[in-house]
Amino acid sequence: MIYLAIVSVLWAFSFGLIGSTLSNVDAFFVATLRLSFATLVLLPFFRPKLLGGKNCFLLCIYGSIQFGVMYTCYMKAYQFLPSHLVALFSIFTPMYVVFIHSIRQHKFSPRYLLAATFSVIGAAIIKVQGTPSGDIWLGFALMQVAGISFAYGQIAYRDWKRSHPFIDDLAVFSMLTLGGALCAGTFSLFFSNTEYLVVSTAQWQAILYLGCIASGLGFFLWNKGATLSNAGELAAFNNAVVPLAVIVSLFIFKESQSLALEDLFRLLTGGFFVVAAVIIAVKKGSVSE
């Protein structure tokens, strides 16, 4: 679980960095670069003899779903939704983690569902900024595909790793990011706007950080943490980044010069639900679940 907590803090800085630095660069292009740099960071640790062709292909498929499809749908959703609704519609991922885990294991845990529900409630309290308006359903659908993809990849890799316990995560993880990069790159060929492919020095620095640290190190630690956590913990931590991201955006990137009392109350209340979700998930939990 400590890996999930570390990555939650790490990813909390990504939101403000993207919004302040990369808002005018083509989103699909950025996604492709991020996953490509992540692959380059992890590739020196790759040990193909441990896997064989079948497992290499399988991990690439998992990565293309968890990272490639997720990033592509997430970025595309911004064409149909304002940013606060993109955030709002992403909070269902814990539910998908629980449901996918239950389907794959052929069993159901009410405790994990309760943890996921608390996590969704907490994130919703923090992120809701108003009522939806306009034609939002395509954007909503894209965000659900993104959430399902990210949830499926976590659970699929977790199950694969537990069936191959003697293979080190670091020796194989580049296959997941490679699959994601190939998937995002394919979508970029069709959807990227060439007018927004000019990247400044500061933007390259941001992309390098996001690719090597947030994506390379972050995705590796996240999936490794997933293999060491039960499904309830994993579901809850999918939204644990929300209060952290709000704090970082407000006080580090100074998106708001002043914090209204209502915003502070929402942050504290939502944070309570997210923390409660983690406590519920950990209580009497087992890593093997």
Strand content: under 5%
Number of domains: 1
Number of strands: 0
Sheet having the most strands: none
In percent, how helical is the residue content?
Answer: over 70%
> Could you state the order of secondary-structure elements as H and E?
HHHHHHHHHHHH
The structural class is mainly alpha
Overview of the molecule:
The protein is mainly α and 289 residues long. The protein has one domain (2-282). Helices cover 73% and strands 0% of the residues. It has twelve helices and no strands. It has helices spanning 2-21, 27-42, 53-77, 83-88, 93-105, 110-127, 137-163, 174-191, 201-227, 231-237, 241-251, 261-282. The chain starts with a helix and ends in a 7-residue tail after the last helix. The model has no long low-confidence stretch (mean pLDDT 83).
